[in-house]
């Protein structure tokens, strides 16, 4: 990226210093250069993936691959009397996230609960707190939370009114991760009106509706309208699996504040590093990362069954890296014990099939 930036800058400076009218080609070059400058300022954000991207995973990913400018925690649920699961609190304790920039994510549809947890998280020193309006899970949306909150735009607007009134200037540290609607992309027009009323730190848009889950192609036309209409910084999220995907989005859409990568970063943990000009993942790197992750889970979770579940879930994403290893992957995902899992894991990682 640095070399490309330098060469483009030198050519552009020399070219545009001439006292001549700009041709169509000149303007295209200028526009391309302008987009490259914007791309340089885009932050790479690691998406929260429930059950996978906990602090153990985040720390090891940062250690071995890096590239992500920040990591979002899986959502913190708030229960009656402002109770939070001990596991969720442990995941966002600053001492468990040393050396990385963490953005805690909150799941709620009650303003008083959000205000309470926001203040607690500020006491921990966090400079951004994210509200989840994108989770498509039926158990979440049925309670009007996550993407389920999008069904009630008037209530959502009232929620933000209460939150911003209570928190004052501190509310500018709130970011939102949203889908473009619950059942129809046209819902994003009303949602954009709501989001534009408040000075959010960032609006992260996944251009699918809840009913699509992660299926089909993102609605890029709807995303473009929302991006152009937004009065706050906008981050793109959805279907970034390789460098080409990233380049298409960042060159195709001007003025993005960031790009959030979820499934793509699980499938290829080196993707953020590659975007920043680093090397692609090697089999040795992946082997070391997987083995250390498994060892850390074994130490912290105690239960072999839980370790097995977590490792198999990660492998559902990693599997796409391997050619010719389908039979090993299938056996790994069907493993009923940690011993069976390790046999197949070693066959895959020692066979250099990446």
TrEMBL record:
Keywords on record: Flavoprotein, FMN, NADP, Nucleotide-binding, Oxidoreductase, tRNA processing
Protein residues bound to FMN: 105, 177, 206, 262-263
Domain DUS-like FMN-binding: 46-306
Active site: 135
Entry-linked InterPro entries: Aldolase_TIM, DUS-like_FMN-bd, DUS_fam, tRNA_hU_synthase_CS
One MF term in the entry's GO annotations: flavin adenine dinucleotide binding
Amino-acid biosynthesis among keywords: no
Transmembrane helix among keywords: no
Cofactors (names): FMN
EC number: 1.3.1.-
Family: Belongs to the dus family.
Role description: Catalyzes the synthesis of 5,6-dihydrouridine (D), a modified base found in the D-loop of most tRNAs, via the reduction of the C5-C6 double bond in target uridines.
Name of the protein this chain belongs to: tRNA-dihydrouridine synthase
Origin species: Candidatus Weimeria bifida
